[in-house]
Amino acid sequence: MNVHDSEKIAAKLIEQGYNLTDDINFADLILFNTCSIRQKAEQKFYSELGKVKLIKRKKPQLKIAVAGCIAQQEGRAFKKKRPFVDIILGTQNIDQLDTLLNGGIAIDQKDDVNALELTAERQDKVKAFVNIMFGCNNYCSYCVVPYTRGRERSRSSQSILNEIQELGTAGYKEITLLGQNVNSYKSDCSFPKLLSLIHQIEGIERIRFVTSHPKDLDDDLIDTMSQLQKVCNHIHLPLQSGSNAIIKAMNRIYTYEQFKEKTIKLRKTIPEIAITSDIIAGFPGETDSDHNQTITALKEIQFDGIYAFKYSKRPKTKAATMDGHIDEEIKVNRLKEILEVQELTTGNINKKLEGNIFNVMVEGRSETNKNRWCGRTTSNKIVNFDPLPSLIPFAGMFIDIKIIQGFRHSLDGEIVKP
Ligand code: SAH
Ligand code: SF4
Question: Distance from the CA of 251 to the center of ligand 1, in angstroms?
């Protein structure tokens, strides 16, 4: 979400005659698009801001802007404490950036979809993010998003389809629909219907979406995913905890058993689907027994991968004032165990893929070895492979790859000769 917001911010600045630079010392304006989902993200920002303050001391005409969730959260007080910051831009105010370039604050939460329907300066030429909804009404007790991103609101299907149509014409092959909770999309049509309309757009070959909330994952969506060939075989479905007591305290509105049932149904209907998840370690009140239930859940469900985090206390949230906050050391140990169990599972799942052939969309040269190429399967697994003298890949090409070796974080493969 933030990456795409940055693309919209960049477009707005380019409209005003700015260019992007990779060298911070050349910049006339330095804009931070911040995240406040966990304290660690905030800390990183504050340490970068400290460095930029020093640059401004030597170059007083430099403008410094802070956008995103920290800007939204801290608002005017932030600027008062740090007068060297010129511009404060809330999460729903990107459209006003052009009026603030000499300094100012815009943080009013408008809850208006139109303010966020903006052109983006996309960084990739074949993959594109497309917002379908903004904000969140779920109030999970640990989460700051409902406070920083406002009420849940969905874009009209026509506006989404127009944007994707343009992307298809411009040569984009893959789109990722974005929302805090995409499957609660509510507009002039349902989310499954929206997928079927997008499916008809020429040029777009792959459709992904993040994130899905388990409470809104119904049979209609599972069936639609299995019927629409362009919808990728991947779902990110955050479980957060394997203990029903903790899931309830998190205000997530499902039980572990219901969640597990949904993963079984997904795998039965779409056998090649990869299911990934998020887990929080050390939520307030989490006992050893609760933690062990999360470990059992990971072993039972066998996710393809997870993002796991230590619980982080966030301002305004209900969990921040709950009893039973967990010691840092216990959180660290629980997170470590969660990651170890998952690494084994991911390794085993990827090992089982050896010998199979997958259609891969090439994304570019491999990060670790520039002589090799990399792409993704529809199940979102990264595959690295060598080019052939007779077949030089390019980004956006679809190519059959046989998996030679499965690792924990990627797969190694070879091109199947056409
Ligand atoms: N809307 C998405 C999640 C957005 S936040 C959903 O509901 O699934 C992404 C992830 O960050 C969450 O799934 C959660 O695991 C993690 N997260 C959010 N707030 C957190 C906090 N206070 N401490 C630790 N992890 C948190
Ligand atoms: Fe946060 Fe829950 Fe909303 Fe996700 S669904 S953004 S975790 S409040």
Answer: 12
- Quick check: CB of 37 below 6 Å from ligand 1? yes
* CB neighbourhood size of 67 (10 A): 24
Percent of the chain whose predicted confidence (pLDDT) is above 90: 95
Each residue's pLDDT tens digit, 169-216: 999 999 999 999 999 999 999 999 999 999 999 999 999 999 999 999
CATH fold, domain 256-352, is: Transcription Regulator spoIIAA (3.30.750)
**Residue among 38, 73, 132, 143 to mutate when testing ligand 1 (max atoms within 8 A of CB):** 143
pLDDT on residue 140:
98
CA–CA gap between residue 408 and residue 348 (Å, rounded): 8
CATH 2.40.50 fits 357-415, yes or no: yes
Q: How far is CA 204 from CA 128, 166, 218, 379, in A?
A: 10, 10, 25, 17
Confidence at residue 116, expressed as pLDDT on a 0 to 100 scale: 80
